[in-house]
Amino acid sequence: MLSEQKNSGFRQGESAAGMTVRDVLYVLLRHKKAMALFFVVFVCAGTVAILLMPSVYHSEAQVLVKVGRSPLTRDPEISVPQVDGSPNEVQNAMAIMQSESVAENIVEKLGPETILRPAAPHSFPARVLARLRRAGKAAGGESPYDEETIHRYATTAVVESLQLKALGNIIRMSYNAQDPYLARTILSDLLDFYLQKHVEVYTAQVSPEFFAREATKAQEDLAQKESEVEEFRKKHNVTSLEDQRKVALDTVSQIQANLRDTNAEIGASKARINSYEEQLSVMGVKKDSETGQPLVQPAPSAYVGELKQRLLDLRVRESEAERRYPDGALPLEDIRDQIRITQEAMNSEARDAPAAAAMGGTVAGAGGDAPGRNVVSLLETERAQLDGHQARATMLSSQLQAAEKVLEPFREVETTLKRLTLERDVLEDRYVEFRRNLERSRITSTLDREKVSNVKVIQSPTLILDPILPNRHRNFALVLFVAFFGAIATAFALEYLDQTLKTNDDVAKHLGLPVLTTVTEEEFKSCI
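Predicted structure:
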């Protein structure tokens, strides 16, 4: 029977799990023509595809993020780039590089045709671009493929073709294009637009004109306040308020000290008078009922001598005080008051001396002797000194009141002058600050105009004439690999789909009939 006899219902679902090496080789040899055809066709197609693949060229550049501005511009009121090379600053720089605004500037400069046009003018992308333009023109600009859409495609192509990688403070930039010169041109333009955008982002937010206006206004306010302070000084005749106030305070302090000393002397004098009166009371000396004065009078000559001696001592003290104090000083005036009181007492005693002598020196009481007269003399002298101290205390009190009245206006004048001076100082500080910021703002504006930033290009875009894609050797090896195993897979696929009986075992297995002989297809055709 024929070995190629059809049997559509027998070999469906048969598994190849029990196939041997001989069976595998049989399958491969049986479908060798199909395998060879698949291998040749796939290799040819792959080779053509590899040869038609556009070449991709690569351009690289490197920039360094560093401290690029002078410390003179470090001012909290002036917004200038203060970069320390931190990771955030590097990420910000990369974000600006990949921004659509920078890509749009490149597209506007070079044109979307240059960005989207491949190296081969008749290649598939070029034809697609031409069809997009024709579709946009045919639709009157209403088509999704109008100029705006093409511009957006070009912008997206620039952003997607740009590759960035941060290495510390260094940013490595790379751009892929089908033309090496185009790749370098786009990367160079991208660096230029990025530096311009970087300066715009970090430029000072306050212009020098603003600080100039504010400085002029602050100067006018300062001049007006200084005039007000000067007029106030002239009005109150304040040449040196602090010195005048100090002199007034010293005068008040000195008067208060003298008044305290005088009050202390008054108290001591009263104590001594009480002591002398007690001594006279013990001595039995009687007092005048009208005046309360003791009736024992000292001998005129002795009392006058004591007054003269006291007057002489006071004159000596006055001479010493005149050398130590200026005229009008309180210690000097005190000594002069004592001299005046002693002189009046001596004159009064000189007038009363003849009457006392005519009376024979009247003595009352048991103590009409010399000790009694001495106590009476001391008592009278102490009373005279007490009168002098009290007169001096009255005078010092009047002087103290006058000095305090003189000091009162100083407090109000000093408060007002301090307020005016403080306002003037504030305006002066404000003016100086605006002048300083004006100079800094001018420096910053100059740096902005010169495009001085914290980014330094350490490697310009390179021109690499060797394409990085495609790798034709690798791709060809991959095509051979896929073609080889694809041919094998094709043979097994054809074997699985083939429903014919091929061997004696297939006939015995599926038909249950013994095989008597086999006739090949060539022998069968020859017999016909």
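Summary: The first strand starts at residue 57 and ends at 65.
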